[in-house]
Amino acid sequence: MPRGLFITLEGLDGSGKTTQIKRLTSWMQQRSLDPVVTRQPGGTVTGDRIRALLLDSASTPLAPMTEMALMFADRAQAVAEIIEPALAAGRIVLCDRFTDSTEAYQGGGRQLGSELVLNLHQLICGNLQPDLTLLLLPSLQASLTRARRRNERHAAETGQDENRFEQEQGEFFRRVWEKYREIALREPQRVVLIEGNLSVDEVHDQIVEAVSERFVTVQHHG
Length: 222
Description:
Layout: E1 5-10, H1 17-30, E2 36-39, H2 45-55, H3 64-88, E3 92-96, H4 99-109, H5 114-125, E4 132-137, H6 140-158, H7 170-186, E5 191-195, H8 200-221
Parallel strand pairs: 1-3, 1-4, 2-3, 4-5
């Protein structure tokens, strides 16, 4: 059986990833493609417990190395439990965040550097690479405003606080944003950069175009 297709969505909180994953999922379902949809951190029972620890404001102070180790613990579980079995079964996997997030947030934001993140990825995740990464990069200000608004709404609705990263200063997010750009420039074959303050429909159209192109390539080579 041919191996499945691994697609990740990346970007700062507030970049519109969640909305776009829902749109892309329904676009695929309408074409009888039934993707496995997951997220990081989270997506497994173990991962959801790690997510609660990582994103809760009460988890400060968390040493940067601890934070990164927890991200990889979550990812290793997701790869073993969800991602690899689905790809082996020929399924499409849509994942909200993967190692690019760790490189951007911990490598860039926390200033641990890219090399450490990429070495750990090789060691812990067998260097599993997405076939396609859709990187949503609206302006920094637009993302931050949207993320704060969403978290306030989420806390009000559920009583859960997933606000720990939003408490960081602007300089932290500037480093994350710049690291994402750097990844896109370094890996243009894998990463499709969708930049600027576009409408939800405009972003969706660019995503569909990128995904359709990748399918043609895969079918052609497969």
